[in-house]
Inverse folding.
């Protein structure tokens, strides 16, 4: 998964479709990337994520829980209109900032 | 309203068929000239119902799922997603936002809420021990 680290923030670029089928591997890769204690904040770049359903909501919530325990945060940037609607509808923007 | 097309597909309850079901419905609805947003709404709703059939209906143990769809004059798409899995004891509770029977699996309990907000109507028919049918309808260009 393409990512960049700057200070205590990691930016991960999601692409393709995030459904139940892809969720397990995305979850594992993200957990691996944020497992280092020096990472506190996760930014998900969603500009190339073409599809997401409620399975994706679970993946984002799960990473939020991991990082919140460490006093960290999850933020997203550049969601497509479709992905943005899923985030708004589910209330995810109450805990995940849109940059 | 008269029917202009109808289709029915049976496929195995495998995660890779979630994308297949989305693509199939997306292609089938093209004659109604959907907007990109309408296309995404319908595909997302199908994805939710098919995923539920796989993980809840068949508890990831496999089975067959039926997807049927109909296009009506006036730009209406009607769909049914049917499984012969465990069924739902309490449909009203299942449809509540945030209700999930699998919280430890990182489910958010938002599937039915997504279906309801993206489609005009969602009907759930279920019999414990026999299976579940999710019927959805949306008028395009509304
Ligand atoms: N086809 C089905 N067969 C049996 N139970 C079902 C079926 N579809 C849904 N359910 C039940 O309804 C509940 C709510 O479904 P919903 O899709 O809203 O949430 P979820 O699947 O648990 O989580 P999410 O969709 O957010 O990942 C499920 O947890 C499950 O108990
Ligand atoms: Mg669901």
């Amino acid at each position: 998964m393409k990512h960049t680290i700057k200070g205590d923030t990691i930016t991960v670029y999601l692409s393709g479709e995030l459904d139940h089928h892809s969720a397990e591997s995305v979850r594992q890769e993200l957990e691996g990337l944020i497992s280092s204690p020096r990472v506190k904040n996760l930014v998900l770049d969603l500009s190339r994520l073409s599809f997401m359903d409620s399975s994706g909501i679970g993946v984002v919530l799960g990473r939020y829980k991991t990082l919140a325990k460490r006093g960290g945060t999850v933020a997203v940037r550049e969601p497509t209109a479709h992905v943005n609607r899923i985030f708004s509808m589910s209330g995810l923007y109450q805990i995940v900032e849109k940059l | 309203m008269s029917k202009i097309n109808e289709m029915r597909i049976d496929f195995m309850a495998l995660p890779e068929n979630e994308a297949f079901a989305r693509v199939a419905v997306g292609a089938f609805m093209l004659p109604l000239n959907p907007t990109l947003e309408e296309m995404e709404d319908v595909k997302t709703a199908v994805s939710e119902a098919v995923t539920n059939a796989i993980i809840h209906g068949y508890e990831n143990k496999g089975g067959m799922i039926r997807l049927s769809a109909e296009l009506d004059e006036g730009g209406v798409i009607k769909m049914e997603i049917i499984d012969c899995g465990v069924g739902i004891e309490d449909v009203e509770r299942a449809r509540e936002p945030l209700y999930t029977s699998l919280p430890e699996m990182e489910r958010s309990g938002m599937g039915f809420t997504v279906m309801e907000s993206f489609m005009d109507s969602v009907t759930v028919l279920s019999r414990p021990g026999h299976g579940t049918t999710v019927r959805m309808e949306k008028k395009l260009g509304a």
Observations:
- Chain A has three helices and five strands.
- The radius of gyration of chain A is 12 Å.
